[in-house]
Amino acid sequence: MAKLSESGAQKIIEICGRYKDEKTPLMMILSDIQNEFGYIPLEVQEVVSKETGISVAEIYGVVTFYSFFSLTPKGKYIIGCCLGTACYVKGAQQIIDKFSEILGIKPGETTADGMFTIDALRCIGACGIAPAVSINGTVYPKMSVDQVPKVVADYKAREGAA
Ligand code: FES
After folding, report:
1. What is the pLDDT of residue 134?
2. Confidence (pTM)
């Protein structure tokens, strides 16, 4: 969705229409758009603003506040590295740094081939198996820096075999 297509704009208008009777429709609209398109860039926010009368500044504020909304497309595999306290004291920073080094991207970024995104997460509720990494919902317990290259290689191999 580099530039918003006519059909993309129509879809957004349709989503906004679903909640026209709601008092506070913004979260529902943005959730539907995030699910439908995978991200919510500025040109989409402008359409939502026009349809709802809510300012782009307010919409932008919501999109950037909640981590489940994204301004840019995410990768096929989202590598969520927990940087909560329990994981942090067990070396989570070195683990996320290793993913960054291998993939050549910073946390919050996506590889150019659209394959991987690295996300820094707060506690994911798996402190007992810290440091924890979650990739598309699969939790990797007690991760170590040494395991990182193999995990990345496994996902790459999976793609090669697909
Ligand atoms: S701090 Fe990482 S799972 Fe709780």
Report:
1. 95
2. 0.72
